[in-house]
Amino acid sequence: MDQFQIETAQNITINQNAAHLGDRMLAYIIDSFVIVVYIILTILLLAFLEIDFADMWALYLLLNLPAFLYYVLMETFTNGKTVGKSLMSLRVVKLDGSKPNFASYFIRWILRIFDVALTSGGVAVLTILIRGNGQRVGDIAAGTTVISEKKKITLENTLLRDLPQDYVPKFPQVTMFKDREMQTIKELYDSAKRKGDHNIIISLSDQIKKVTSISTDLNPIDFVDVIVKDYNYYTQQL
What we know:
Blueprint: E1 3-7, E2 13-17, H1 21-49, H2 53-63, H3 65-68, H4 70-77, H5 83-87, E3 90-94, H6 102-117, H7 122-131, H8 137-142, E4 144-148, H9 179-195, H10 198-212, H11 220-236
Helix pairs in contact: 4-6, 6-7, 9-10, 9-11, 10-11
């Protein structure tokens, strides 16, 4: 899983995990299955209703419009996800950290015809491998990518942080927090970094400064990271 950085409008750098190609292919298979099942159900419905042949085709096209627009509709109304992406913990996001708009989803959908449908996914796979940040042709044109929201169980997922031996803490005020409070801060911080939600990180930074009366020029993402590290340093000395 490749990691890349995005630069938000607030000049905050956030690391994101590009979706693994295998996960994207599985999500595509799942979505294709959903579409096929939907189409089969509409055919069975029309057969059951015994509608005239001429009227059947018009109704068939109307009923299957949602299947044709599946990707653009799902991603627009479910915050960058489809059924397959949800099951694989994937999401479409903008490279600058903002939420994609309808135009972005529409561009991805239109160009899916070229880099997925007409080439059996060959162009999409090649582009994703070359770019290294999860972008197929549609993503490049729309300024989007697909990230993985899967959590890896590592030291980063616990309150503990692996600090260097020569680590020098900056803010002794962190000792006023309790373990449970710091765990909540860290979980919110890590989740916001994965999702590219810089607003949560800014809010965390502001609340910490308010509670501790700390004044610093560090940007919010670096400040919260230092707070967590400093807390680990002081608690490990006890």
